[in-house]
Specification:
Order of helices and strands: HHHHHH
CATH superfamily of the largest domain: Flagellar protein flit
Shape: elongated
CATH class of the largest domain: Mainly Alpha
Strand content: under 5%
Number of helices: 6
Number of domains: 2
Radius of gyration: 26 Å
Largest sheet: none
Distance between the termini: 81 Å
Helix content: 55-70%
CATH architecture of the largest domain: Up-down Bundle
């Protein structure tokens, strides 16, 4: 007669109830029905979807910010900058979850998007620097105070 494997039950319950239960012996009344003599295969954790949509959204917002800077609409630049920040935060949160590695094509697309975002940023800064130049004395003197 085989002895039920409580360790497998704990893993199955931890999968259902969170990792805080992982490795703990489960009380009989909580998982007794699930006892088995063979390992329980936990449901696979779904992989996050591709990260490319995040990068594409950031690149779109960056392009819109550049267009606003070129049109001398600095309030719109600020709006798009805020939107970029929100999208970057969303990307960072999504990166916490497991995902399939990018294919070579997707990796190249990601690199292309990152280069576009950096180029847009450099162009925006070049457009903003003349506008910020008159403020430079005030900014530098406030730092020395």
């Amino acid at each position: 007669m085989a002895i039920p494997h409580r360790r497998y039950i704990a893993l199955a319950c931890a999968h259902e109830h969170g990792d805080a239960l992982l490795g703990k012996v489960m009380p009989n009344d909580l998982c007794e029905v699930a006892e088995t003599t063979r390992p329980i295969t936990p449901r696979p954790v779904p992989l996050r979807p591709s990260m490319l949509p995040h990068y594409e959204a950031i690149a779109r917002a960056s392009s819109e910010m550049l267009a606003a800077a070129r049109a001398d609409e600095w309030h719109e630049v600020a709006h798009h900058e805020e939107r970029c920040g929100e999208l970057i935060t969303s990307l960072k949160v999504a990166e916490r979850y497991p995902g399939a590695p990018l294919s070579a094509v997707d990796h190249e697309r990601r690199m292309q998007l990152l280069r576009q975002i950096l180029s847009d940023d450099a162009q925006i800064r070049a457009l903003a620097e003349p506008w910020l130049e008159p403020l430079a004395p005030y900014l530098s003197s406030s730092r020395t105070r």
